[in-house]
């Protein structure tokens, strides 16, 4: 399980600078020739991809492909070589708190919620660096709007929540930092299909209502392709296939490898 990230972006004057608009052909998130790994273990071997602002992008691929490593490199937890830009601003080599201040929120594999703390305390942690009390309160209500079940459980310890509720809490905490880019690592992990479906529906409405750009790593390719505009297939640290969600869904190789049927 990844360590929880408790650094929330402040909303300083730099946060809106140089934002590339959707459809400008430049990409909002731009990743070029990214290499990353763990010490001598090299995992990503030159990953390149672009995500337009306001889009949902799915990263698919088998176990050990490097999906989690890619998200860790994007949020600054791992120092990579190559280019990562958000809204035209280079993020490569910046520490996680600086990347978070640029508007990147990471919901790690395993969620990273603080089990003994209450739901509300966990959510407030996502906003701990913010000084605008009224804004934080409004954002709490906004998160409860997306996840009404969290409102019913405000004073409950996170550890007493169901798996689905804990994933909602982790996403809610990320939203408390008002991210421009939300990185979700296997949100469906360990959840029942119905709960996963509900969760993905909420991710889609967050994306639509708040125009938050989302990169979602997911083994459940069906669900991810349902909500994504674009998708990339990662294998052994390299992107082996990229396209619109419809193109990827229609690809026979992907269908056989990840969707569990032949077309
Ligand atoms: N902390 C680490 N130290 C060394 N090697 C690691 C570490 N974490 C992951 N790896 C290795 O990096 C490779 C990619 O792992 P990663 O977790 O990014 O894959 P993944 O695509 O997210 O897989 P999964 O679908 O199982 O979550 C694997 O070979 C893994 O063993
Ligand atoms: Mg992973």
From TrEMBL:
Renumbered to this chain, region (Disordered) spans: 1-21
One GO MF annotation is: ATP binding
Show the InterPro entries listed in the entry: AAA+_ATPase (IPR003593), ABC_transporter-like_ATP-bd (IPR003439), ABC_transporter-like_CS (IPR017871), BCAA_Transport_ATP-bd_LivF (IPR052156), P-loop_NTPase (IPR027417)
Q: Which UniProt keywords apply?
A: Amino-acid transport, ATP-binding, Nucleotide-binding, Transport
For this protein, the record's CDD domains field holds: ABC_TM1139_LivF_branched
Question: Some GO term, biological process aspect, for this entry: which one?
Answer: L-amino acid transport
Domain ABC transporter stretches: 29-261
Q: Which is an annotated Pfam family here? A: ABC_tran
In which family does this protein belong, per the annotation?
Belongs to the ABC transporter superfamily.
Q: What PANTHER family does the entry give? A: HIGH-AFFINITY BRANCHED-CHAIN AMINO ACID TRANSPORT ATP-BINDING PROTEIN LIVF
Name this protein carries in UniProt: Amino acid/amide ABC transporter ATP-binding protein 2 (HAAT family)
Taxonomic classification? Bacteria, Bacillati, Actinomycetota, Actinomycetes, Streptosporangiales
